[in-house]
Design a protein that fits this description.
The protein is an alpha+beta fold. It has helices at residues 11-14, 33-41, 43-47, 62-73, and strands at 52-56, 78-82. The protein is built from four helices and two strands; from the N terminus they run αααβαβ.
């Protein structure tokens, strides 16, 4: 959530404070899109180190990019990324 004020029950246990100097807009996707990308690809390279991963981009936009980067970071030897948008390729 990106807002100046927001009421969140149990916020002391559910939120992580951003480090000073970090732009909130740069990390706004971490709670949703980044987590979806993680869930989609990280278990596979962990189970088969050095394997291959195919990521289909498209309507989800940044989720596919996060998934491809996470696959590389977590040991996939080959990551194929397919998308119809040239700016994401």
């Amino acid at each position: 959530m990106v807002a100046d004020r927001l009421r969140i029950p149990y916020a002391d246990h559910m939120l992580v404070r951003l480090p000073a100097g970090l732009d909130p807009l740069r990390v706004a996707a971490a709670s949703d899109n980044l987590a979806d990308g993680w869930r989609c690809v990280v278990p596979a390279p962990a189970a088969r180190p050095g394997g291959s991963v195919l990521v289909l981009g498209g309507a989800a936009q940044s989720i596919g990019l996060y998934a491809a980067g996470l696959a590389v970071a977590h040991g996939a030897e080959v990551v194929e990324y397919v998308d119809h948008r040239s700016e994401r390729l």
